Amino acid sequence: MSDQPVTNLSESRLASSWGAATGSWLPAAILLLATIVVWEAVVRIFAISAFIIPAPSEIAQSLVAQWATLMQATLVTAGEILFGFLVSVVVGIAIALVIVRFDWLGRALYPLVVLFQNVPKVALAPIFILWFGYGLAPKIGLILVIAFFPVTLSMLAGMQSVDRSLLSLMNSVGASPTQILFRIRVPHSLPNLMAGTKIAATLSVIGAIVGEFAGASDGLGYVIQFASTQLDTALVFAALLLVSVLGIAFYYAAEVLERIMVPWAPKFSHA
């Protein structure tokens, strides 16, 4: 008899978790399904050419027919995104630490970082191709210049928003600037940092595709360009669908990492 309340409590928690999970994705699934149905109906009713806007069924057929090619391209692009994202996070964190730890260098470096962020990244793609060739390096470089900024900015915001009284307390006990940085500022900045990494994850997808547009022999960006030259709009949409899936996957992977590393951070509420 004593096990019954425990069992009921476990079942209640399971039902509550399932209900919360269902409530989070069900509205999006319904909206997506409705959009697909309306899209298909509009294309069929108005007899829109597949060259202009293919029906979802035609995109699905292209996805199945070119599955092996698209999966190979997806793996290539996913590898570029992952490597570029990791490099961007490391560089973004390093820049933020330098700006906060060395005040004189921070005052000189921060305006240059902001100025560099305003340079059109698409214009950098051919320069990177010229410098680094057609391999992995120009894609990683382009992802880096696109995605490091939100990491740096978010971490800076977190480290600079520490309670002044806490900093005064650390100074009163003789803590060095480096000790204050790593024991107070960095832990305090983790929620902001993880928010920045989620933004960087989605920007990394954009960077990889732009890099492949500029020069590549494989990847989803290359498939999109090749399909465009062949007027295969359905294949273009199929590749775009996989790009979107990659973006969603990397975003939610960053969110899972956030929940593991900083479970106390505020979460987005659908209520």
Automatic annotation (TrEMBL):
Localization annotation: Cell membrane
Domain ABC transmembrane type-1, residue spans: 70-254
Entry annotated with the keyword Membrane: yes
Entry's transmembrane regions: 20-39, 81-100, 112-134, 140-159, 193-214, 234-254
PROSITE patterns per the UniProt record, alphabetical: ABC_TM1 (PS50928)
Keywords: Cell membrane, Membrane, Transmembrane, Transmembrane helix, Transport
Keyword Lipoprotein (UniProt): no
Cross-referenced Pfam families: BPD_transp_1
InterPro entries listed in its UniProt record: MetI-like, MetI-like_sf
Membrane topology term: Multi-pass membrane protein
Similarity comment: family membership: Belongs to the binding-protein-dependent transport system permease family.
Name of the protein in question: ABC transporter permease
The organism of origin for this protein: Mesorhizobium escarrei
